[in-house]
């Protein structure tokens, strides 16, 4: 196991100011594979006195933290929060005021649907020093590990990341017309519960039922699986195959490239072998 002394050397090698007592680092843990963690994130993990982490942070990433660091789980799932966001904000301030070196660890990137901006604002309001470390967001990790890019000169000249999670009043208000355009990739985060609405609205605004879609569950982890479907059969496949959160919905012609690129990929591990095989069987 990496020692605290070794983490200090890593911090020095990165020309990084060590995490100070009473400081909070809001850190992106990436989409799950510990190999996708940034060096700066690893350095801070090995300095932290306290970890405040979400549901989507993998066990393998947590195992890289400094031995003896206290852990506070504040995970969120649909309609169930282990700790409401407001109380998470209070916890960060409380730990910092106790002089702890705090790492707030978030799946993916903290500033992409991670509410990291809200937490940073709260820390500023209470005079707490903080830093932010980006992470590989789920859209990038899941698409790459499923064998297709998000953009491609011939198929998609733009990409949009969209929250598929409805507001508290149950409404999912999106500019569907702007999303239902050709040569464009749309990635829906947290959209599984609204898959039927997504399918219906995109078709109503011009995309054909045969438009390709990728469903990627637990991307970049040993449990990853993905299938390539269409807008027309997406909901039926989700129900039949029992897809569960976290699942990304990727809409666009680029997902078809998985049929060509995925079989030719040379992998450094076997993390997603079964997912690639499943995706090809579903074509």
Quaternary structure annotation: single chain
- CATH level-3 fold name of the largest domain: Methyltransferase, Cobalt-precorrin-4 Transmethylase, Domain 2
How does the helix and strand content classify structurally? alpha/beta
Helix content: 25-40%
- Please identify which CATH superfamily of the largest domain we are dealing with: Tetrapyrrole methylase, C-terminal domain
Which strand-content bin applies to the residues?
15-25%
Instruction: Indicate how many domains the architecture comprises.
Output: 2
Kindly report the average pLDDT value. 89
- How would a textbook summarize the main sheet? 5 strands, parallel
GO biological process, one term: siroheme biosynthetic process
Domain Tetrapyrrole methylase: 24-234
GO molecular function, one term: oxidoreductase activity
EC number: 2.1.1.107
How would you sum up this structure, described in words?
By secondary structure, this protein is an alpha/beta fold. The protein folds into 2 domains: 4-133, Cobalt-precorrin-4 Transmethylase, domain 1; 138-281, Tetrapyrrole methylase, C-terminal domain (Methyltransferase, Cobalt-precorrin-4 Transmethylase, Domain 2, 2-Layer Sandwich). It is built from 11 helices and 12 strands. The strands form 3 sheets. The chain has a 5-stranded parallel beta sheet with strand order 3-2-6-1-7, sandwiched between helices. Strands 8-9-12-10-11 form a 5-stranded mixed beta sheet, sandwiched between helices. It has a two-stranded antiparallel sheet with strand order 4-5. Strand 4 (76-77) and strand 5 (80-81) form a beta hairpin. The longest helix is centred in the N-terminal third of the chain and has 13 residues, at 85-97.
């Amino acid at each position: 196991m990496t020692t605290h002394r070794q983490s200090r050397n890593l911090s020095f090698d990165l020309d990084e100011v060590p995490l100070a007592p009473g400081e909070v680092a809001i850190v992106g843990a990436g989409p799950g594979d510990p190999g996708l963690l940034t060096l700066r994130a690893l350095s801070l993990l090995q300095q932290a006195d306290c970890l405040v982490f979400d549901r989507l942070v993998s066990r393998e990433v947590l195992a890289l933290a400094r031995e003896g660091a206290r852990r506070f789980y504040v995970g969120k799932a649909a309609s169930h929060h282990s700790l409401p966001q407001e109380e998470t904000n209070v916890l960060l301030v409380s730990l910092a005021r106790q002089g702890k070196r705090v790492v707030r660890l978030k799946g993916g990137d903290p500033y992409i649907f991670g509410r990291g901006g809200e937490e940073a604002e709260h820390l500023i309001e209470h005079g707490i020093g903080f830093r932010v470390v980006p992470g590989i967001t789920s859209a990038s990790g899941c698409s790459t590990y499923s064998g297709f890019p998000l953009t491609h000169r011939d198929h998609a000249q733009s990409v949009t990341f969209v929250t598929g999670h409805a507001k508290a009043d149950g409404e999912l208000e999106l500019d569907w017309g702007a999303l239902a355009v050709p040569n464009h990739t749309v990635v829906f985060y947290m959209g599984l519960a609204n898959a039927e609405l997504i399918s219906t609205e995109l078709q109503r605004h011009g995309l054909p039922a045969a438009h390709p879609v990728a469903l990627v569950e637990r991307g970049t982890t040993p449990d990853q699986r993905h299938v390539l479907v269409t807008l027309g059969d997406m909901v039926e496949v989700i129900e039949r195959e029992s897809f569960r959160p976290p699942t990304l919905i990727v809409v666009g012609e680029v997902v078809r490239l998985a049929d060509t690129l995925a079989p030719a990929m040379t992998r450094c591990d076997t993390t997603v072998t079964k997912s690639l095989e499943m995706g090809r069987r579903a074509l």
